[in-house]
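Suppose a classmate hands you a notebook page containing two proteins, each written out with its sequence and a corresponding row of structure tokens. How would you begin to make sense of it? This section walks through that situation. The first entry is reproduced here exactly as it would appear on such a page.
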Amino acid sequence: MGQTRRARIALLSTSDTDLLSARASGAEFVLANPSRPGHQTMAEAIEGCDLVVGRVLGSPQDLCDGFVRVRATGMPTVVLGGEQQPSAELMELSSVPIGVAAEAHRYLAEGGPENLRQLHAFLSDTVLLTGEGFEPPVEVPQWGMAGRGLVARSARTSTGEGAPRVQELPRVGVLYYRAHEVSGNAGFAHALADAIDATGEAVGVPVFAGSLRSAPDELYDALGTLDALVVTVLAAGGTTPAGASAGGDDEAWDVERMRALDIPVLQGLCLTSSRAEWEANDDGVTPLDSATQVAIPEFDGRIITAPFSFKEVDEDGLPHYVPDAERCRRVARIAVNHARLRHVPPAERRLGLVLSAYPTKHSRVGNAVGLDTPVSTVRLLGRLRDAGYDLGLDDPDAVVSRVLAMAEDPACTDAEAGDALIHALIDAGGQDEEWLTTAQLTEAHVRITPEQYAAWTADLDAGLRAGIEEAWGPAPGTLFRNDDGELVLATLRAGNVVLLIQPPRGFGENPVAIYHDPDLAPSHHYLAAYRWLEAAQETGGFGAHALVHLGKHGSLEWLPGKNAALSAACVRRHRPPRAAARRARQHRRDGPGEAAGDPRRDLAADEGRRDAPRPRPGRAPRGRGVRRLPAPRRRLALRDQGRPDPRRPARARPGPGR
């Protein structure tokens, strides 16, 4: 009895997970991705093969000429689409019967090594007549919670009476494609889940799914049981955000089911470039990754985080996702903080409100063209009070107590309350070198010792540390230090909320030029301010749970580092408080360059404000309009412009030779 001949089948697929599954199947496949730059020619790929299977994303027009030439040779050819639903247009290009092509699509759509093994047997038997036999496609669940061999974890806390109390840890989901699960390429997702577990403060839950756009309600029900979700799949709302823009179909982008989850949804970046390519790329991401993993997911309301996985090519020429341990810890920390914040009562949440100052002048505190930042801050404080945040209102003489009382006094305007808040910040230090007094340095509420600064910056990237010291001298520098050598911050404390002016970045004769220098490292004082916000209370820090930047033009967008997908060497990576779960930024909405880039680098949610409708010519404006600066702030503006203050005698300034 003759031995059954093993057929050799070429699988040419634009889906790398198909190729990985085929390799793991152990069947006689020749593998290639026709979309990859530098791939071998079609003739080389199919040399010695008995049959060709081509699977591509797109339409017949996207097929390379090699498929046409292969079919002309008479070699059996199966042409399939790359989506879950079969493409009749592509299957019609096959040389095998349409029923055979349709069944072959089922094997690939289900995916996984076992189905690829049976695909090889099916085509060998039905097309090449080898008689080896085959099994029908094994149906793989469209979604599921991946098993990790873990038991439910809990944390023990004290009840105050000595008896421990068991408390369930928050659960953080890691959502990835079903194709990665069945192909054995899910190690990156499990590595992130392991990093979440390693924090000891949450449990990582890997979840695979074919898609969020066509996902069953059962998947969304399961996601709703989580406390936070890190997503690595494409946007749920659609693929063409332009269709949901002004003048288009506003309903074209539907994220209602995502919104109904009511949990933080974060975008974990699994870059399609290698780690080496990412490190060398100043932009941080390729145009493809920028679109699919940054810009489009924002239409879902996702918060963009950091890259934690990179696409590397192995010895067989097949790419797969390789997690990076340090980056996994970074994304895990962000996700865990979001998940934990949901369980912190409002009265215990610690919040930092940072007002921009560009440049650092008293008259520029909270600068935002078209947005009244002082009034916005007062109203935000009022909302925080109403939501149960601790603003220290037991003291009626405290600044925030007085400002909120002014805001509710019918005899006062919102503008007067906002001005009172800004002047209180200025009186606390203001950080305008021209007007800063020795008393303000000495009596500052926040003073950071050299020892604290050294401890809080011990984990700085070596290259970043060298850049800071080259520009500003050895730590802790000379800027904004009092006679005791402490770094001082201009802050207002209000219970569990702190208000502060963003630390200065520009100095000297041309401070604006320094603000815009993307290569100049920030000063020790700048870094110390944000590390103080982050540091735990027991170490002398504020211990912020969240941070809100108010104002349009600060110094955030000009800090050195990548434009997105930050590394440990980027200044932005060290600037936001890593202990803070959420960072929001309030600004005027018509500045897309700053409004988009800043939160992406800051891992923040962005909140925009539109201008009030402008009156027609010849008509008086209704309601809010552009208001003239009140007298005290007008005088500050005059000083910054070098013009005399009519209510203050001119000061003698040193002239040449003095």
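The notebook's second entry, a different protein, reads as follows.
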Amino acid sequence: MFDTEEQKPIIPIFIDNSSSILYHDVSVKEKINELIANAPTSKEVDFEYFFFDAEPKKVSLDSVINLSFEGGLTNFEKVFNKLRTEERYITSAIILSDGIVNDGSSSIYQVEELNFPIYTIGIGDTTKTTDAYVKNIFNNRFIYKETPTVIAAEISNQNLEDEDAVVLFKENNRVIESKQIKLNSSGVNRVTFDYYPEEAGKQLITVEINRLENETNIENNVQSKYIDVIENKLNLLVIGGSPSADFSAVYQSLNAIDEFSVSKYLQISPTEFTGDNLTQKLDSAEVIVLVNFPYNNTPTNIIQQVKESIEKNNTPFFNLIGSDIQLLNLSQVQELLPFTQSGKYNELYLAQPSFSEQYSSMILGDELRRFNNFELPPVAYPNVGFRVKPGSQVIATSRINNISTDFPMIVSQNTPTNKSITLIGSNVWRWRITSERREINFFDQLIYNFIQWLRVADNQRKFFVETSKEIYAVGETIEFIGEIYDDKLEPIRDASIIVDINNSGNSFSLKLEHENNGIYKGELNISYKGDYSFKAEAEIGGIKSKTYNGKFNIGQLDLEKFETVMQENYLEMIASLTGGAYYYICLLYTSPSPRDRTRSRMPSSA
């Protein structure tokens, strides 16, 4: 309960300070000042003023005349959150805006729980403008260096049908291709460009449409995004000790991924294998996958050839060991395994994985960690007394009859001579079948994440710094997130991480602060548009030991300039759901027609 006798109630007034406001009417500042100057006053309540764009900021009444309309984003969600968490008594709230939301959630149903009305005042014009703009850019998820691909763009127009336009495709601000189009009467054109990336890494691609006659907004004629160009397809070799459903599931899962080039070598009898040129395949393999290999009847020379290739080339590998462990010849590859066996095979358990909070995040990712592993069918797990070798990390243990055990199911190794992941259990193919109708196939994503973890260079995996986005609007806060681990992949909590940010003519430096468990964060506001590169350097114990490089852009995507038509319906719904009312600013001090009278009454302090 609020003590209204000791503290006067308040009426917060939120004024949209984003740059889209200026597209409606250059005199909007005068209209707002006039509105505030003529607003009702009361000794019973306090009026409080806020500017809002990306977030609300309290200002004095005198500061209202200093509206700049330079905000790069409009976030209503934070306004609603501000109202919901206010501990003082609010009689009503007022929002002046064009209702164009381009940051945060646009859902208004969270305002239903407010116990006071919101009065909204519309600023802008609901008339559709004459405009052509780049709405979307589409590209393949996997793009490879020196491999042709197609970039598609969606060009939208309003009131410009049958007009001729020129559309440019650029890479790192260099024109790659130009196309002339006739704008469609449907309002949408799809334009494709042939793209042959010559360099790997992050590339900034841009689609731009020329300025057309009578076009009212040219700021949305360009859109950009970063894409990752992959050096080339990753060569994988899948070796199996015998045909099985698990071998097929692993092979099919990997073979379905476009960024992998997968070959196989499968034993089908004591002397016969599918596939040939094992030596060549081993030499070209960047990651090796072993499925129930080797068997007791696998020729010794084949076992030694595979083992020596892994050791000589330091090839990372994924190892799936099934429940028929008595049929496997693991003693021949014991040096490669992350465990020893302390007993003989005696029985099988039906087990599900129980993922470690400490070690699973680096391999599973957020999507798989949210997956309900209780839904996974149990696998056949052999009881042979596995003992994990020092330096290995247990990603998942076995849960048997819903009881957690310390029996290792998924184990990783990362030593100077061995980088591997081992999964113990048979019938893992059932994981794939069970989750194939879900949005995320657990098995496919798990195997993919294993390979990605194995392929990444060690120094990249132990230390990286990224921005929360790759392209920011002007005025938007740049957030840096870093993670750092030691050689045992234990989080380092006492590192000093400095990020140096540069573009032509501007440079900045930022120290990231440790938040928890080896995760560091920092924020920076930069008001200059352009392409930026950054170099993060980690210092541990007074010694600079690790670096990481990245890129981001400010201003290529100005969300405030994409949509400039006032969203009157949005403002009306906010008012309606809270028991308030909607008003149009241009009608507040004029004699409205009967049709407009409901839009012209000024909200009172009551």
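A careful reader of the second entry would note: The first strand starts at residue 10 and ends at 16.
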